[in-house]
Amino acid sequence: MARVIVMDLSRHNTVMVGHDRYFVLHSDGRALLVRDHCPHRGGPLSLARRTPDGRRLSCPWHGTKVGVAAVKRSCLPMVRSGDEALVVLPDGDAPVSLARKEILANLPPDPTRDEGAECR
Q: What is the pTM of this model?
């Protein structure tokens, strides 16, 4: 059975569910709770910077580009009212903790990043 938690977005932007970390990604004026995991090798997408076009995140571990649209499609269900958000967590009974961390993925795109560099 799924669990629902209440997050105060003015105080928290990171959720740990067992060993899985999620972070609040701001995109197109919306706050989305997404998995903090690069599909390439598991790097922390919360520490990624947006590419100059703003459409991709550049993983801090290997520079792999991950589309923001793809990250958005994997977000957890969340209903927001002001700074309060109701979040539906994955099934299970893993412990849940909330934290506030620096989320580089929410900063403006980095114009100094080389668009062509990508690690495979």
A: 0.85
Task: Please give the backbone phi and psi of residue 104, each rounded to the nearest 5 degrees, phi first.
Answer: -70, -25
* DSSP-assigned letter for residue 91: S
pLDDT at residue 41, as a whole number: 80
Model pLDDT for residues 74-87, shown as the tens digit of each residue: 899 999 999 999 99
Q: How far apart are CA 115 and CA 1, in angstroms?
A: 43
Q: List, for residues 2-29, the tens digit of each pLDDT value.
A: 789 999 999 999 999 999 999 999 988 8
Residue located via tokens 């062509």: 116
- Asked whether the beta carbons of 75 and 68 are under 8 A apart, the reply is no
Containing 31, the helix (H) or strand (E) segment is strand 30-35
DSSP, res 76:
B
Q: Give yes or no for a contact between 4 and 89, defined as CB atoms under 8 angstroms apart.
A: yes
Phi, psi of 45 (to 5 degrees): -65, -20
* Cα 81 from Cα 8, distance rounded (Å): 10
- Of 94, 103, 108, residue with least CA distance to 23: 103
